[in-house]
Amino acid sequence: MEANGLGPQGFPELKNDTFLRAAWGEDTDYTPVWCMRQAGRYLPEFRETRAAQDFFSTCRSPEACCELTLQPLHRFPLDAAIIFSDILVVPQALGMEVTMVPGKGPSFPEPLREEQDLERLRHPTTVASELGYVFQAITLTRQRLAGRVPLIGFAGAPWTLMTYMVEGGSSSTMAQAKRWLYQRPQASHRLLHILTDALVPYLVGQVAAGAQALQLFESHAGHLGPQLFNKFALPYIRDVAKQVKARLQEAGLAPVPMIIFAKDGHFALEELAKAGYEVVGLDWTVAPEKARECVGKTVTLQGNLDPCALYASEEEIGQLVQQMLDDFGPQRYIANLGHGLYPDMDPEHVGAFVDAVHRHSRLLRQK
Length: 367
Known about the structure:
The chain is of the alpha/beta class and 367 residues long. Helix content is 47%, strand content 11%.
């Protein structure tokens, strides 16, 4: 530590590194916890901050992103912050128009329909320069965190981004995107390569800006069976980790732990554990003991309480957390939900979840 209390990049020295230690597989005194979508609409202060602004305008304001990222930390003793942003800023930076329709979600007025539509996309190397506002938000947030907890950066994985770009929004079947995989496999690979080439400098840029860990969201893994996943998702998930790590080294930046969260990707846990990520995130459909059996002792697991469990009483939340922690075991584990928080959840129950993780994980270590 330098005498002025600043770390190597001139940021305030980190006071609570429990999350990072768990991610690297080191022993911790208690189980660290954070929540996907912890900066979200379930917080009244979030709704107040966001009320006046269009969603993507908020994403483009470093000041607003910083404020939203820090809001849950003012309420709860979380062990990590995750930058407020969206996975769809990458398709936007590639030149696609994306709007957020209230009550419906993201919408692409001109989705990719034919292979020649790929010509409309900007060159992937320009993406990082288009997303300077995310880097500014990360740097500002890292300063304002004042070393309280680490800051996580993130992006969507290539297949998940492709689904939005081809479907034109959310879909229950991903039939249009999967049609591409079957009818236009070469064009699909071309698009997935473009996305990989855009994501790598974007993620490296997040670390250069101050992110201390990275999570890749393969939110739509479950729409692919093992064969399609191994062909169109896994190779790009691997490439992202491999290239990000190599680029960080080339840039003289310290390595950061990387998390892969493939929702409903239980069929690929073994492969994901060998994909080059320090942490594998789990959704709530996976039994912790089975997951540990699958991945072995070489990676940290993150998850996986059913977000809807937060509708239960605070007492029951405590019992469910106790069971989850018993199942995962005390080390190589980061507590989280199996998906993001929902807008109608009670902040008090989020607090009960966080407190239960801290309380029970300390008791577990005394056994």
